[in-house]
Amino acid sequence: MSNTSSITQFLLLAFADTRELQLLHFWLFLGIYLAALLGNSLIITAIACDHRLHTPMYFFLLNLSILDLGCISTTVPKSMANSLWDTRAISYSGCAAQLFLFALMVMAEYYILTIMAYDRYVAICQPLHYGTLLGSRACVHMAAAAWGSGFLTALLHTANTFSLPLCKGNAVDQFFCEIPQILKLSCSHTYLREVGVIVVTACFGFGCFVFIVLSYVKIFRAVLRIPSEQGRHKAFSTCIPHLAVVSLFVSTVMFAHLKPPSISSPSLDLVVTILYSVVPPAVNPLIYSMRNKELKDALRNLILEVVFQQK
Q1: FRET partner for 89 with CA separation of 20 to 30 A, picked from 58, 122, 140, 193?
Q2: Looking at residue 2, what is its pLDDT?
Q3: 109: Cβ–Cβ under 8 A, 6 or more apart, which residues?
């Protein structure tokens, strides 16, 4: 019986068998990756350089952009390289590192999104206490807690997953290493410990989801009581981007991992995984900048400054 010690590498899922389709996948992922890199880098730079954006909402948005960059950089470059060089291999340590980093980024991003819901709740429902509840020290502590919780969760999952004996080969049915795919390779019943950890993590995730939903119920009630249409529009413009990002993130993750086995297929699993691991980091900058005048002005000033400096 083969076990973990005998496996030195894993074989990731190939997007295509023909060389033409492999190159198409490479260029498609390259375009998405460059879009994510450009969009998130612009947001990070704009927030860091524009003092008008040194507020709690944009501080958390900066953290979100960093996590988006980390998330897509963990999975996409390796998949691109495999398609370009016509290989499926990833080393054992590389797979463990990829699983750990992806879990870290995804969990920390979810916690940051939860904190951002709290930020919008306080800003709209308790504006007089905003400076007290979300001072600079409190924001740093909350962001550090999100990153730290993500790190500990990812470490626990990675240690548990890679301590299991693997008896079912080394072919991973996904284009990157993720926990459910590695568990499929483990021996029968030995994965129950990791399943228990996943259940506990899911309970924390559900708690965050309930908190976000309740926050927005109170936010919408407060916004609808604002007498002026301009005031309601301004309040909604700060909430809708965050709500759109949360909806995209939660819906795709839930569908990927909770869909019934009867509709599951390798091609559908691949598409859904791309939707929650690749698409959000690329579209989040667009979602946040579309309805946010302050951020659009900061990005415009940053681009103009770069252009005129080059001239």
Answers
A1: 193
A2: 45
A3: 64, 67, 68, 71, 150, 249
